Amino acid sequence: MDAALLIGLVSIVTAGLTIAIGTIGPALAEGRAVAQALAAIAQQPDEAATLSRSLFVGLAMIESTAIYCFVVSMILIFANPFWNHFVAAAGH
Amino acid sequence: MDAALLIGLVSIVTAGLTIAIGTIGPALAEGRAVAQALAAIAQQPDEAATLSRSLFVGLAMIESTAIYCFVVSMILIFANPFWNHFVAAAGH
Amino acid sequence: MDAALLIGLVSIVTAGLTIAIGTIGPALAEGRAVAQALAAIAQQPDEAATLSRSLFVGLAMIESTAIYCFVVSMILIFANPFWNHFVAAAGH
Amino acid sequence: MDAALLIGLVSIVTAGLTIAIGTIGPALAEGRAVAQALAAIAQQPDEAATLSRSLFVGLAMIESTAIYCFVVSMILIFANPFWNHFVAAAGH
Amino acid sequence: MDAALLIGLVSIVTAGLTIAIGTIGPALAEGRAVAQALAAIAQQPDEAATLSRSLFVGLAMIESTAIYCFVVSMILIFANPFWNHFVAAAGH
Amino acid sequence: MDAALLIGLVSIVTAGLTIAIGTIGPALAEGRAVAQALAAIAQQPDEAATLSRSLFVGLAMIESTAIYCFVVSMILIFANPFWNHFVAAAGH
Amino acid sequence: MDAALLIGLVSIVTAGLTIAIGTIGPALAEGRAVAQALAAIAQQPDEAATLSRSLFVGLAMIESTAIYCFVVSMILIFANPFWNHFVAAAGH
Amino acid sequence: MDAALLIGLVSIVTAGLTIAIGTIGPALAEGRAVAQALAAIAQQPDEAATLSRSLFVGLAMIESTAIYCFVVSMILIFANPFWNHFVAAAGH
Amino acid sequence: MDAALLIGLVSIVTAGLTIAIGTIGPALAEGRAVAQALAAIAQQPDEAATLSRSLFVGLAMIESTAIYCFVVSMILIFANPFWNHFVAAAGH
Amino acid sequence: MDAALLIGLVSIVTAGLTIAIGTIGPALAEGRAVAQALAAIAQQPDEAATLSRSLFVGLAMIESTAIYCFVVSMILIFANPFWNHFVAAAGH
Amino acid sequence: MDAALLIGLVSIVTAGLTIAIGTIGPALAEGRAVAQALAAIAQQPDEAATLSRSLFVGLAMIESTAIYCFVVSMILIFANPFWNHFVAAAGH
Amino acid sequence: MDAALLIGLVSIVTAGLTIAIGTIGPALAEGRAVAQALAAIAQQPDEAATLSRSLFVGLAMIESTAIYCFVVSMILIFANPFWNHFVAAAGH
Amino acid sequence: MDAALLIGLVSIVTAGLTIAIGTIGPALAEGRAVAQALAAIAQQPDEAATLSRSLFVGLAMIESTAIYCFVVSMILIFANPFWNHFVAAAGH
Amino acid sequence: MDAALLIGLVSIVTAGLTIAIGTIGPALAEGRAVAQALAAIAQQPDEAATLSRSLFVGLAMIESTAIYCFVVSMILIFANPFWNHFVAAAGH
After folding, report:
1. Which residue in I has a C-alpha nearest to residue K72's C-alpha?
2. SS3 for N23?
3. Are J66 and J26 in contact (CB under 8 A)?
4. Inter-chain contact C21–B24, Cβ cutoff 8 Å?
5. Tens of pLDDT, residues C21-73
6. How far off is chain G from F68, nearest CA to CA, in Å?
7. Best interface-test mutation with D: which of C6, C28, C30, C80 has the largest number of D CBs within 10 A?
8. Neighbour count for residue C37 (Cβ, 10 Å)
9. H or E stretch covering G42
10. Cβ(J77)–Cβ(A73) under 8 Å?
């Protein structure tokens, strides 16, 4: 098997697993934060605005870790420096 | 085995596992958020509108992580750049 | 083994595992949501309509992640582009 | 080993594991929902009709994920397109 | 090894594992439902009839997932289409 | 190794594992149900008869899943159709 | 290696694992039931006779699952039909 | 390697693992029962005799599962029928 | 490798793992029993003698499962019948 | 396979797994912190400013561990000293 | 590789793993007992002497299981009968 | 493969896994500490300064364990003594 | 590979894993004991001296299990009898 | 591969895994202790000094287990006696 093929195979598997494993943590964390936000709003309806603002900041922080994984996954599929190197080297 | 075959095999497995593993977290998180929303509505029926709005925003954030996985899975099946490269290269 | 055979074998395994693993999360999440809905209705019978509506929206969101898996599984069995490619190429 | 044999072997294993793994989640979820329904009826006997209706809708949703697995399992045993293809191709 | 032998070996293992793994979920779920039913009857003895009826419907739903596994297991042992095919083909 | 030997080896392992794994769930579930029954009787001694009856029905349902496994295990040891086929075929 | 040897090796391993794995569930379940029985007797000393009777019935049901495993384990060591078959066939 | 050696190796490993794995469940279960007994005696010192008697019956039932494992382990080391068979057959 | 060497290697590994795995359960169980005993004494200082006696009986029962493992481990190192057999047979 | 290829393959896999595994912990931790912050604000709305400040400091500390992983992942893809060494050495 | 080398390798690995795995249970159990002792002393300072005495007896019982592992580990390193046998036999 | 290549491959994998696995514990621990700090501030707003100081000391201690991992990871990538040894030895 | 090399390799791996795995239990146990000590001091500040003394005795007991692992790890690196034997034997 | 290379490879992997695995326990334990300290200070602000002192002693004990791992990890990278032996022996 030539180099580009191997790089391609490994990139596909890694891209998929990265986003699949990498979303478990953020999803569960967001679920917890949202659930607690709803409980807090039900307990203090007058603070709904403050609570929503804190929730969105928190969700953005948590989502950022999912986005790290998505970025790495997209880099591996569409902007993979190792793939570019070997495709260029082999003149495919 | 030629290159396109290997890319195809790996893409099938990765696409399936990505969406299978990637939906565990979001599903559980949505279940938690929905359950808490129902508890909150039962506790504060007057805030049902506010709570529903917060719930839908939260569900959208959580669903987004599942959609990242679905997007990667669909890219691997229907818009796989590595597959396109090798099919074109081999003139299949 | 020829290419179509390998694609077929891998598609069968992946299709089965995708739907098997992919239903664990949604099923548990729906169970949690339904259980909480019943508790909420018992606590606030007057809000049964609102609670049911929220429950159905939530179940639809959760079910969607199971359906992503079912869609990928069906695509792999009945509309597999890699299978079509190799069957056509080999003139089977 | 010829193609049909391999397809058959893999189909048997996948069919069994799909339904075995795929029933864990729904069974646990239904158990949770039923348990909560009983607690809710004991708490609000007057709402038994409403609670039962909600329970049956919820059980149907959860059962649907088990049925996805059963459908895939039956397709693999009795309506397997890959099996049909290779049996027809080999003229067995 | 000939085809029928392989089909037989795989069918035995799969049949056993399918029913072994597939009963874990339903058994635990039924245990939960029965335990909750007893607690509910102790709390509301006057509703014992309603609770028992709900319990039996729920147990039937849960048992159905165990029966799916048992059906697949029995099909693999006594009505296996792949086994029949290869035994007929080989004229054993 | 001849066919009957392989079938025998696999049947032994599968029979043992099937009953070993298959009793974990039912045992735990029965333990839960019995424990709750005792708690319920202590709470409502006057309903001991009703509670015992519900308990026995529930235990029977749970035990049924263990019996499925025991049946499959016994079939594999003493009434194995694949074993009979190959022993008859080979004229041992 | 001859057939009887292989059957013997596999029977030893399976017999050991079957009883080892198969006692985990029943032991934990009995521990739970006994613990709850003690709590119940402490709560309702006047019902000690009823509670003990229910406990013993429950323990018998749970023990039965451990005994299934012990039976299979003993059958594999002392009354193994496959062992008998091959020892008789080989005229050892 | 001759037959007796293999039987010996497998018997050693199986005997060790059987008792090692097989004591986890009973030990934990006894710990639970003893702990609850102490709590019950502290709550109802006047019933100490009844509670101790129930505890000892329960511990005996739980210990029986550990003894099953110890019996199998000792049989494999000191009264192994397969070992006796091959040592006798080979005239060692 | 000769027979005595293999028996020696396997005995070392099994002896170590047996005692290592076999002490997890008893240690945790004793920790639980001791912890509960302390809580019970703090709650009922007047019953300290009764509680200590029950605790020691319970600890002895639990320790017995650890001692089963220690006995098997020591037998494998210092009184291994298989080792004795092969050392005697080979006249080492 | 030449050295640069191997370095490339390993770098892709490691980069993906590092960020995928490395975000699980931080995401869950942030979810917990955000959830507790919302509960605290609902309990003490007057301290919302102090609580938000403490939350942001904490989130920054937690996010730092995710960023360690992201930094290592990016170094492996875009500034890998081993890759640079071998590409320079081989004059690719 | 000669016999003494193999015995040495296996003894090193087993000695390390035995003590590493074997301290998990006792450490956790002691932590639990100590924690409960502190809670009990805080609740009943007048019984500190009785509680300490019970604690030390309990810790000694738990520590004994860790010491079993340490003894086996030391025997394997410094008083290994198998090692002595082969070193003597080979006249190293 | 020459020595430097192997050292490079292993260093990449180890560096990634070290930081990935090594941040799980600290991240979860920091999340727990921050969450409790927020709860404590909400409970005792007057002690916010004392609590923040204790929190920061604690976070620093916890972060130190993550930094150990990061240090080892960076040493392996940028100051690896084994890599330097072999690159110098081979005169690459 | 010669004997000393193999002993060295295995000693490195075992030393590292022994201390890595062996500190998980003690660390968690100490964390639990310290946490409970702080809660107890907060509940009974007048007993701080008694509680601290009990805590330190308990921590010493728990730390002893970690020290067993550290001792084995150091013996394997710096006072390994097997290493000394083979280095002396080979006259390295 | 020569001896020094193998020692180097194994040392890298072991050093990384030792510190990665070895920080999980201490980090979680410190998180628990810090969290409880904050709760205790919020409950008894007057005892903040005593609580902080106890916390720091406890954290030092826990950190010591992480430092054991760090020490072993550093020894393996920078003061490895096996590495020194083979580098000296081979005259690299």
Report:
1. I16
2. coil
3. yes
4. yes
5. 999 999 999 999 999 999 999 998 998 999 999 999 899 999 999 999 999 99
6. 12
7. C30
8. 34
9. helix G24-43
10. no
Count of G-H CB contacts under 8 Å: 172
Query: K84 and I87 in contact (C-beta within 8 Å)?
Result: no
DSSP D45: G
Backbone angles phi, psi at C15, to 5 degrees: -60, -45
- CATH code for F3-87? 1.20.20.10
Phi, psi of E79 (to 5 degrees): -140, 45
CATH 1.20.20.10 fits L3-80, yes or no: yes
Q: Could you say which architecture CATH assigns to the domain D3-90?
A: Up-down Bundle (1.20)
Min Cα–Cα distance to chain H from G79, Å: 11
Question: Is F4 an interface residue toward E (CB < 8 Å)?
Answer: no
Residue G20 · residue H18 · CB < 8 Å: yes
- CB-nearest to K27 from M6, M51, M65 is M65
- Give residue-wise pLDDT tens across range D46-83: 989 999 999 998 999 999 999 999 999 999 999 999 99
Is B59 in contact with C64 (Cβ distance < 8 A)? no
Q: Which CATH architecture has domain J3-84?
A: Up-down Bundle (1.20)
Note whether E4 contacts D: Cβ–Cβ < 8 A: no
Query: Any chain K CB within 8 A of the CB of I49?
Result: no
Pairs of residues, one from chain B and one from chain C, whose beta carbons lie less than 8 Å apart: 172
Class of the domain covering H3-85: mainly alpha
| Number of neighbouring beta carbons within 10 Å of residue M75 | 21
Record: contact A11-B82, CB cut-off 8 A = yes
The interface pTM score, or ipTM, of the predicted complex is 0.85
Q: What pLDDT digit, counting tens, does each position of G12-71 carry? A: 999 999 999 999 999 999 999 999 999 999 998 988 889 998 999 899 999 999 999 999
Assess L45–J contact: CB distance below 8 Å, yes or no.
Answer: yes
In one letter, which amino acid is F22?
Answer: G
Instruction: Check CB contact of A58 with chain B, cutoff 8 Å.
Output: no
Q: Are M3 and M90 in contact (CB under 8 A)?
A: yes
Amino acid at B74: M
Residue J4, chain L, CB below 8 Å: the answer is no
8 Å CB contact between A77 and B84:
no
Tens digit of pLDDT at every position of chain M (92 positions): 588 889 999 999 999 999 999 999 999 999 999 999 999 999 989 889 899 989 998 999 999 999 999 999 999 999 999 999 988 887 65
What span, in angstroms and rounded, lies between the C-alpha atoms of C65 and D64? 13
Q: Which residue has the tokens 């002893």?
A: M64
Select from K26, K89, A12 the least CA-distant residue to B6: A12
Interchain pair A87, B85: CB under 8 A? yes
Does residue N37 contact residue N52 with C-beta atoms inside 8 Å?
Answer: yes
Question: Around Cβ J79, how many Cβ atoms within 10 Å?
Answer: 11
Alpha-carbon F74 to chain mean position: 10
Residue F38's identity, in one-letter code, is: L
In a mutagenesis test of the F interface, which of G30, G53, G61 is the best target, namely the one with the most F β-carbons within 10 Å? Answer: G61
> Which subunits count as partners of chain C given 3+ CB pairs below 8 Å?
B, D
Contacting partners of chain N (3+ CB pairs under 8 A): L, M
J2: left (phi over 0), alpha (psi -120 to 50) or beta: beta
Buried b (16+ CB within 10 A) or exposed e, F27-52: bbbbbbbbbbbbbbbbbbeebbebbb
